[in-house]
Every structure is written in structure tokens, then in C-alpha cells.
Design the sequence.
């Protein structure tokens, strides 16, 4: 590979990595400006980069009961509507 091409590729890769990085917070930014939910760690553990993902999974687990109840009601209604049939099967 041509040395100029290597240099161009390396600089492009480095530039893209730097561009994807998060900006550093301004030191005068107050802690009160940040939402308390974003500060609190999920499940009583120390804060990690996966806290948002963990909170999303926890919300999904909480809603799962409601979804299962709705499914049970639908299954019951389907079974009741099939029960009125002729039973030739």
C-alpha cells in the first residue's frame, strides 16, 4: 500500500474516532441541571455506561406482566369463540 494512502486512511480513521467522542462537560455546569434519573445508578450498583440499557430492560420487564395479561384475555376470548363451533376437527 502506498505510504500516502496509509497516512490518509490513518488520519481518516483517527478523525472519525475523535468526532464520535463525547464532548467534555463545561466545569461551570451545575449538577442540578442534570436530571436526577440520569445520575441514579440502576439496580443499586455503581454507575456504568450500560445504565440506560439496564433501565430500558427493567421497564420492559415491568410491562411484561401487562402484556401477558392481555395475551391471556385474548386467548380466552379466542377459546370461547372456538368453543361455539361444531367441533368437527
Sequence:
Amino acid at each position: 500500500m502506498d505510504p500516502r494512502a496509509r497516512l490518509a486512511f490513518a488520519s481518516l480513521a483517527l478523525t472519525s474516532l475523535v468526532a464520535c467522542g463525547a464532548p467534555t462537560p463545561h466545569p461551570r455546569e451545575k449538577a442540578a441541571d442534570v436530571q436526577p434519573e440520569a445520575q441514579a445508578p440502576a439496580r443499586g450498583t455503581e454507575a456504568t455506561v450500560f445504565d440506560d440499557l439496564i433501565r430500558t430492560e427493567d421497564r420492559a420487564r415491568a410491562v411484561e406482566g401487562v402484556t401477558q395479561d392481555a395475551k391471556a384475555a385474548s386467548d380466552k376470548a379466542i377459546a370461547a369463540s372456538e368453543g361455539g363451533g361444531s367441533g368437527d376437527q
